[in-house]
Amino acid sequence: MVSHHSIFVIFLVAVAAPLLAQTRAGSRVPVVVLEVVLGVIIGPHVLELIEYDSFVSIMRTLGMSVVLFMAGMEIDFGRIRGRPLSLAVGGWIGSVAIAALAVAVLHVIPGVAAPMMVIIALTTTGLGTLLPILRDSALLDTSFGRMVLAVGTLGEVCPIVAVSLALSDRYSTWQEFLFLLGFLGLVALAAAVGVGVRPPKVIALLTRTMHASTQLPVRLAVLILGTLIVVSDVFGFEAVFGAFAAGMIVGVATRGPAGETFRVKIDAVCFGWFAPFFYVGTGIAFDVGALGRDLETVLLLPTFLLLFLLVRGLPVLLYRRDLAKYEQVPFALSSGVASLGLVVVITHVGLQTRNMNPDIAQALVGAAVLSLLVFPTLARILLSRAAPTPSLAGPA
Q1: What is the pTM of this model?
Q2: Is residue 391, in this structure, part of any structural domain at all?
Q3: How many domains is the chain built from?
Q4: Which of 302-311, 327-336, 351-360 has the lowest mean pLDDT?
């Protein structure tokens, strides 16, 4: 049976998804969304072509760490320093307040449990989705692009830190904070060493082995990933925090033209092998039937979709002096694009630790997928109609 050949089925979907993205109908849909949707279709809740067994579960967990590693590599604080970063910090704090208010309201609805993990999930922004859109639209170096990039960066970094702190139960609050500072200091030191210490012999060795069968630079990156996952566990944080931090270190150390070849190789390994297990596996595990189980659950999907927009979009009021009027609504829509990878990670961890209701988890993931489909498209349309500048278009 096909269900006994998990790798074949998953990579059949992994190939089908980018091919569908090349068609006219699928050209505006992010490939990761297609992977999740196709995963749902082949999964045990629809066509039953594949089971969510222990192998798929383990590979999905590995893929989750790798996806967070790649998200960390995309972070570039140098591009957003100054006012974009300060506004993004204020906006994320405002988002936490709005999300907390929304969760308080959800708590009074009978049968709906919305724990702290929901607040964190609602404050994410999909930098990995927005970055290629901005780049392909020639908006990355504009004021609008830098503001969106800053919001996306904070929408990736802050929720990761928040999840790690929220789920750390080994120490007191002050101890957790001190360990966080210690861990971040270690990450900063490792990044500084990666950038500043580049002896000619080491550079020659890495360059020489870049195209050899040993692939030493790629293996070093994997070693850094594994090391930071172990270190984060020792510090009492979630493994995803270590994976994200490892990505930031490798990203800083390989930034610029000299690291282009390495980045191409690491992209091939991570997105070509591990990422499909995460996104397709998420679809396989997704119980689409649970969304229609009862009235409260049915209403959760559009409710969370609206909350993604309100929680991350309302802080656009802070940007009234920095954005043109025609840019403000597209900016809010872009900010409301949830980080599908992070939302899946948060719900996955929430379910494992029993801090999240399964219906809430399903609705959050479904709403995150819809936000990727709806919000960038609306932002593109509004920008293209209102301004003579390049539209927010391109593959996601």
Answers
A1: 0.79
A2: no
A3: 1
A4: 351-360
* 3-class DSSP state of 392: coil
Q: Does some domain include residue 392? A: no
Task: Annotate 95-149 with DSSP letters as a single string.
Answer: HHHHHHHHHHHHHTSTT----HHHHHHHT---HHHHHHHHHHTT-TTSHHHHHHH
Token duo for residue 22: 């090349």
**Domain assignment of residue 361, given as a range:** 2-386
Residue 395 belongs to some domain of the structure? no
Residue 269 sits in a domain of what CATH number?
1.20.1530.20
* 224 in a structural domain: yes
Of 311, 382, 276, 36, residue with least CA distance to 151? 311
At 114 the pLDDT is 61
Cβ-based neighbours of 88, under 8 Å, separated by 6 or more: 80, 147, 150, 151, 153, 154
Tell me what pLDDT residue 392 has: 44
pLDDT tens digits, residue range 232-266? 888 777 788 888 889 888 888 888 787 888 888 99
CA–CA dist 57, 212 (Å, integer): 32
